[in-house]
Design a protein that fits this description.
Elements lengths: L1 H31 L6 H27 L19 H29 L4 H22 L18
Length: about 160
């Protein structure tokens, strides 16, 4: 089960990235063309937020009680989490970065519900989505990140 949840968590990163790029493009084009805000944009932003939240829940499960979870891993005496590159990334850097990214995804979706003019909605959502994208790209354990923390581009490969 733990491997399946980890693979699902890793696969959902692609769903989030695709939805996030679509959301950024929709927000930018809506902002630049001064288009009227519509329900399709709101739904796209909602699906982006939902995908992010589901991935966050799976990730929190992994970091707390997964194979290398905080509550399931015994550390040797004198081990410092901040000095261990692997533990620091998976217990501190990755969760904090991803939680911050999900906050920005949620803020971007929240803009859709505000009583603002369409241009302001698109502009604010665009900036929130871009910040979320940068945080996600910085916090994902890409294959080039180093042997200790790297994950394959596609789970199981």
């Amino acid at each position: 089960m733990a491997t399946g949840l980890l693979h699902l968590h890793n696969t959902l990163r692609w769903v989030i990235l695709i939805l996030l790029i679509v959301s950024i493009v929709k927000a930018y084009t809506g902002w630049q063309s001064k288009k009227e805000f519509d329900a399709a944009d709101k739904k796209t932003w909602l699906f982006t937020m939902i995908a992010g939240h589901i991935t966050l829940l799976l990730g929190l499960y992994q970091v707390l009680v997964g194979r290398i979870g905080i509550f399931t891993t015994e550390l040797a005496a004198g081990t410092s989490v901040m000095k261990d590159k692997f533990l620091r990334f998976y217990w501190v850097e990755h969760p904090v970065t991803m939680i911050a990214a999900i906050v920005f995804l949620t803020l971007a979706h929240g803009v859709a519900k505000k009583n603002l003019d369409s241009t302001t909605k698109y502009k604010k959502a665009f900036y929130f989505f871009v910040v979320a994208l940068v945080l996600i790209l910085a916090g994902v354990p890409w294959p080039f990140r180093g042997i200790e923390i790297a994950r394959p581009l596609f789970p199981g490969m």
